[in-house]
Design goal:
The chain has 159 residues and is an alpha+beta fold. The protein has two domains: 2-51; 57-158, Immunoglobulin-like. 18% of the residues lie in helices and 36% in strands. The chain has one helix spanning 23-51, and strands spanning 2-4, 9-11, 57-63, 72-78, 89-94, 107-110, 120-124, 132-142, 147-158. It starts with a strand and ends with a strand.
Length: 159
Amino acid sequence: MSTWDGTRWVTEKTAPSAPRPSHAANWAATAVMVIGLAAVIAPLQLIAAASHKSDPGVAVACSPAPCTVGGSMTVTGWGFAPSAGGQQVILWVGYPNDYCGADACHGFYSDPWVASDGTFSVTFTSALEQAGTATVSATAYMVKQDKWWTVASASYTVQ
């Protein structure tokens, strides 16, 4: 191609083209990029896995097993925010074969301390006074909604 230099037409001299990299060099560069991407993603996946919380839950175990009148009952919970962070959890332990009338249900409350790993365990002695089926419910205070919500429950049967 020619260009005008102000006085005459001049033919451009083409610069020699740069040598093309080999296919091996291209594959090596691609491998380095893939390894770098994996090195960035792996820690992020570990952080995401470590911060995943399970849904709150409760379980009931009795001593002696199965639950019998006069025995003790242990309620364990998991997946709760720690009490040290301000989380409040209230357990409602209903009595077996109870009915809830217009004014009240029969049972008792407990306010367990939730450990830093989100678990709690509370043992009630002499709480199993009659045979039948009942429910333990865990209620937590949800700050964003400014309400108490039942977040987990478990049934138990006393023989």
